[in-house]
């Protein structure tokens, strides 16, 4: 039966809503760059519900205006404990700008997709305003923007090396990664009377202290100091070498505490928490969300990001792929945290009771769709591991890649009497379904999963991401050889033919990635043409903080080898590489021929542009809207953007 909600079922957003609850004061006030959607896919809602579960009085100010007298920052007064600040589910610069640094026409996390409601560098802007208005109230900053900018980082949009976000934002404490575990410990200690400025040994937090002040003691932690911010400004190789330490320590079960000198202070980044247990992650998803946008948006239009996920189920977090251009593991972690079957099915039941549910679930997935319940067979081996990826260059012998639990989840969801069809909208790691690559798995089980997905969970198109065809580029990307995509396509075609499904396989590719030369893009065009693909959904690499590829883009050095790596950086280089995606357009033929002849690759000219066999382009359609994401690139995607980072 459909539930009828009252205004008090949401966290209060105004003084009027605070008074309706009978509150005279607040304990925590949250400021967010996103519109307020009370759903577990939206970080501020998770944060608010966790704080509420401690008995705290919590309010949220979504998308506060920074263009007027700043009354949004003062209207609810001072909280008893702290202000919490987040830019939202995406880095605000990715949200606001395209790969070409043009301002986007739409903001997926704002009603009607309206732009202009989120400032650039939102977390820093909000925090500075709050510290100016209320200098004595602690500010806790978190979310993906703060998480990925927790240390000296390259900012593509200003083309500068920036210090940690604590320096610029003046916030008192930073929570990085998925915030539930540190947040619970923070609140527990505050409720026991520990002062906020004494919270120095909580895992997955960072703070600044005077350079000569003694470090907080924790006998279980080892320390490692990386090059100072000032050294990084002078020496790009030092900056690059820092990243190896940062990535490895972030992905360890028991990491070291990272120290960095900056402007006469010491940045202290405490180690990560162990991966959330099933009970812990269930607790986050089982909080009393309405799963709906706040009623204040009723007349402003739909929120695109919410419309995309409202009939979807997130079944796990984390990604052990470790792709060089992707920020998922930097924020959500390398190890997988999976929900219980009961928690998943309980949420499915709630979704089916929504008034506009028509029987179709848009996604049963996660950062990568097929990593549910995958973990090390022997935990002690994982505890010592420093590899950034569990499946590159080969799949770890200790990784359990069984797809059986995932197949069982799909079948259990489909058995719900109100569910007509469930789709897999998240990206699938096709390489893990290729027996020649996933040698540890049972080939029959992999085939059963693949057939289950293709037969029951695809709507016309199955999207996968080989990313490139060049082995040197793929090696740097931490992706497998393109030969495995050929193998996967063979299996896909067999099932497609046997089941008479007439489905399409849609591959995603990236241009102008570090190590990618013009010839690599020409080879990509030739290989995909030979396979019968005419690419439409394509991506241009965009440097985002906290990725190997971004470090290479800025410094020119690979952080693990410190060897120089070619990277397309100029506008012309990027446009030239991207142009090869559209070899089938007549206006590109002359340019392609001249470019390849100039580098003595007439063989590629003959394969790509056979004489007197030019097909008239069918691609003079309007380009699709560019959507941003936090995987480190922007993609031309016709359907949706993901809202998954809390």
What do you see in this structure?
With 646 residues, this protein is of the alpha/beta class. It contains 23 helices and 24 strands. It has a nine-stranded mixed sheet, sandwiched between helices. The chain has a five-stranded mixed sheet with strand order 20-21-22-24-23. It has a two-stranded antiparallel sheet with strand order 2-13. Helix 9 (236-250) runs antiparallel to helix 20 (548-555).
Quickly describe the structure:
This protein is an alpha/beta fold and about 650 residues long.
What attributes does this structure have?
646 residues, alpha/beta, Rossmann fold, Transcription Regulator spoIIAA, 9-stranded mixed β-sheet, 5-stranded mixed β-sheet, globular, disordered C terminus
Question: How many domains?
Answer: 3
CATH T-level fold name of the largest domain = Rossmann fold
Helix content: 25-40%
Strand order of the largest sheet: 3-1-4-5-8-9-12-11-10
User: What is the CA–CA distance across the termini?
Assistant: 29 Å
Largest β sheet strand count, sense and barrel closure: 9 strands, mixed
Architecture per CATH nomenclature, i.e. the level-2 architecture of the largest domain: 3-Layer(aba) Sandwich
